[in-house]
Amino acid sequence: MNRERNTGFYLEAIVILLVFILVIHTLVRVYAGSRSASRDAQRLTDAVILASNGAELVLASDTPDELMEFLKEGNPKQENSVITVHFDDTLELAPDGEHELVIDWQETEADFVHAVITVYHRGTEVYTLTTGSYLEGAKS
User: Fold this and answer.
1) What is the rounded distance in angstroms from the CA atom of residue 112 to the CA atom of residue 101?
2) What pLDDT, on a 0 to 100 scale, did the predictor assign at position 55?
3) Which of 4, 13, 32, 44 is buried most deeply by CB count within 10 Å?
4) What is the Cα–Cα distance from 84 to 78, expressed in whole angstroms?
5) Which long-range contacts (CB under 8 A, 24 or more apart) does 87-92 make?
């Protein structure tokens, strides 16, 4: 009879230990998933801010050269109508930053600029914004 009590105690202790391990495993997975989701949300927020700032710069510029002048601290690069500039984690202009802002500047015949603004983080596309603006000298 004493042996049955000991066996029952050990069996109950093993079951409790297994349940405890399962709960810890589940909590660690939930925590890791929430950390990943938080990091992705922060990247998306940063990308939206950079794209919005890029759209404002397009609106403030009449030519790609003016846009390049606004971005000169970040050592922007221009290839045809595409302007590329980098930002660091604090969203400041930085030639070697992890965030890359690409502005594709396309002028139409009606003095209208169509711009596609794409933000990359370490080479992965995060956000794209399409915008447009009439140039300063355009007729109403």
Assistant:
1) 21
2) 93
3) 44
4) 6
5) 87/50, 91/46, 91/49, 91/50
Distance CA 85, CA 98 (A): 10
Flag whether 57 is in a domain.
yes
Q: Number of structural domains, the chain?
A: 1
- Is residue 85 within 8 A of residue 30, CB to CB? The reply is no
Side-chain-side CA neighbours of 61 within 13 Å: the count stands at 24
Note the pTM of the prediction, 2 decimals. Answer: 0.76
Biggest distance spanned by C-alpha atoms of the chain: 101
Secondary structure E strands in the chain: 77-79, 82-87, 99-107, 112-121, 124-134
Q: Please, where are the H alpha helices in 61-130?
A: 64-70
* 140 within a domain of the structure (yes/no): no
For residues 77 and 110, the model is more confident at 77
Does residue 139 lie within any of the structural domains?
no
Report pLDDT for 107. 87
Side-chain half-sphere of 12: how many Cα atoms within 13 Å? 6
Q: Taking a C-beta distance cutoff of 8 angstroms, is the pair 125, 135 a contact?
A: no
- 87 close to 95: Cβ distance less than 8 angstroms: no
